[in-house]
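Fold this complex.
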Amino acid sequence: MKVGVVVFPGTNCDQDVLRVYGELLGMQAFPVWHRDTDLKGADLIVLPGGFSYGDYLRTGALAKLSPVMESVKGFADRGGRVLGICNGFQVLCEAGLLPGALLENVGRRFLSRFVHITVDSTRSFFTKGLTQGQVITCPIAHFQGNYFADPKTLQELTDNGQIVFRYSTAQGEVRVDDQEVNVNGSCLAIAGISNRAGNVVGLMPHPERAVETLIGYAGGDTGLAPFQQCG
Amino acid sequence: MRFQVLVRLKTGVLDVQGKAIETGLKDKRFEAFKNVRVGRVIEFEVDGVAGDQARAQVNEVCKLLLANPVIEEYEVREVA
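Structure:
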């Protein structure tokens, strides 16, 4: 299993992702520079978090024009697995690889805290071995994480099992109108979605920051489970 | 040709900057100011391309990059 981790100017979670796949899961993980078009035979491409191009214009807007994104689009169209975390999710939406957009958080604050997310659909490559209702506790760190899509798109996401994760309580209860639970005000409390085929996944939370019990994070290593599904 | 593109969030899409401005104005007793919406203006020149072709390219660029049609609408103005 080869994992390519795309690095844009301003990406800052690439090392965390490389560590998860390379050191913890023993896969062959390597960076892919945003000016490159060669994905070096990767079986999985990750767009990690950060502030690509300084979030100029809109988050993810300029990153979608990078040369590497043409290759990523082609790779995804051929069924290749693509994962976008935080800013990577924003890039995937801007690039049209995932539907919808990420608006500013409803509470007008940058949120840096732990959240609980619950596995909704197990159709995606990132959740295929997990169970529906399984709770993962991991950090979020974003200002634009408020998932938005028109009602028709939301209905399609629901009907097709494209909602991968939703913000929930520690017990897995989703409360769309409760800002303590659906912290950024996302439509349907969506924390992550997939495309129709399930080979492209984007999520705002950072499971790669909750993969080791050693550092005493509240989430422990619950974030490791979805990465283990990628083998 | 010189163009000005006005980009703003579609009606019904939450505008948190607008809300913050409204709250600030209310604090200064400008209660009459409602529905504040914040947009952005992008100006540029298109050189050496004929009129209609330039306009077509501007629209293409708006859809590609300057506005996100999922959440935003845009207006193009030609500036003298």
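Chain B has two helices and three strands.
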